[in-house]
Design brief:
663 residues; 23 strands; 40% helix; transmembrane; Putative ionotropic receptor ligand binding domain-containing protein; membrane; receptor; transmembrane helix
Length: 663
Amino acid sequence: MCPQVGARVTSTILSLLLLLAIIETHRTVGDIPVDDDDNEQLLTVVPCIRRLCEKYFHSDRAMKGSLAIINIKPDASAFQLNILKSFNEDARHEMGVMVKDARKKHWNASHVTEKAKNYLMLIGDSSELAAPIHQLRRLPTWNPLAQVVVLFTSEMTPLVFEIEVRNVLQELFDNSVLNVNVMVQRYNTSVLEVWTWFPYESGGCADNIDQIRLVDECEYVEVEPDEEANVRGSWMFRERHHFSDFGPKIPKYYNYCPLKISTSIWEPFVVGNESHIEKGLEVLMLDTITARMRLVPVYNVIEASRATARITADNQTGLYADVIQRRTDLMIGGLYENPISRKLLSATIPYYQDDLTWCVPTARHAPKWLNVFIIFNIWTWLIAIFIIFAAAALIYRFNYVEGLYRENYTWVLLQSLAFSLSVYAHYWPRRVSIRFFLIGYMFYGLHWNAAYHSFLISVLTRPRYEMQIATVEQAIEAGFRFSGAESTLPHFDKPDAISRHLAAVYRVCPRMDECLALLRTERLQAVAISRAHSSNSRSIGEAEMYCFPKTDNIYTYSVSMLAKKDFHLLPKVNDLIRRISESGLLGKWQKESEKIRIDEGGEDDNVGADGQTILRLDHIEGAFLLGAVGLGLSLVAFVGELVYYWAKRKYRWRNNLLDRWIC
């Protein structure tokens, strides 16, 4: 047997046992006396109570059933027992009945997971309503959208009754319960009246209880027998219904009432400034929802420092203060559920997935003066240089044997370099063996020159970068400073070494966009921020920062709207969000936001109108630097020669081996 069915059967059996025990003891149950005279007149309306409850209560098909919770008073009156008996003797058994007593704590309700569809509360006056509401709200079966019937167990004069009905409706309205019907026996009669209010009646906006309306009257009367007409005596209901005069309590459209929304400016969900909301995914979504429901969105912008503060249950200055105090109906701005919001607020179904990640400055361009050298690795360059010098040594030796040119090794080295670069060289040997060597050296030069220039084009036209910091470990090792919203700090409350380090050095940013803009100038700065916001923020270009990959997220979450607890419009809002998501509008709005972002970005100065890369001086500055170094060395050598020549003449030095290389 499933837990729900077991709970219903158990509650039904307990109710029957209680009923049988009281019937056997007649006027007393334990030490509690039963005054039949006081309840005799109330007993006459029990059939009408049952009949009208059948009308108001929601129940699914008979096989599934529906849960009804009946709160009884702390006495054992025959009136209450007859009500329980009428529910238990229902031949259709469409509803499972759970009997509650507000004086007793419900120790464990985890075995009942079905949301209650109906509530019946028996009270003497409005002051007794707080206790059962407090108890019911703590149960997992609590459902503010259920049908609630409140029954006064004492007769009241019309003036007192109106005051009591307003008190009951207001108490339940403060707990977000609007489907309420209040039953009372008309003073000094056997007529049962049902009173209620219609939150959106006559252009109302469910903000106060203006008019209370009589919607039903019922009397259970005995028909006298008439022997002449051959009519036997019987009981029958006399009813009068007024419900159709006022329409449903929660209608389909809502009179263009204001839907009060609190939000922070948080792209791409909400775009604008503190004085004006422009657009955004959630703004466009709410525009669609409110247009469909005939509501008017009214936005209240939360200051940035409050939106990024640590999330608390503070109902004065905390992030959720406006919704907790019911000054606003909804909160948006890329929000997600957390333990505090689950306790204090309600949430819509999620419609977007975002994550909290680290963003750092993008790696800088590697020095361009190395462009002409990085084509080959160090070993390739060393081998090439060795070949040039080795070939020069061979050519020098060949020239010495042939005696064709009276040149030094430097001249021969230049000839070897010319051969290796496949350019003209002033060396014409006579011997065939030397010519074959030069032919082979020439083919080497052709291959080397082709390889060098082909790779040079790609290196010059493709930007190179330094190593990109892409993990928290790399950032810590590089000495980065970590910052972000105060609300992010709880994510580092973990025992591992990295979390402890982050919590120790973390710096709180009251305004996240200002901290994000620091990435332009601070090379050792990491900011914890929403990935969606970072890629859409106006404070920094997307190409100016790098956000860690999803595998290194701080936290991944589903974005939803947060509403005041048990908001009565939440089911309709959820239904429209589901339709918007299924229709693909969210994806369309997101792509439009990304397109705007691309259109606003500037073009690369290095790319021409035809898409070709335009080379600047800094692309080949390495070659100029190398030439400048050569000129500098030659200048130093020239000055050295002058100094040596001047000193030799002044001090009359003898000729030596150095003269061969200098003079």
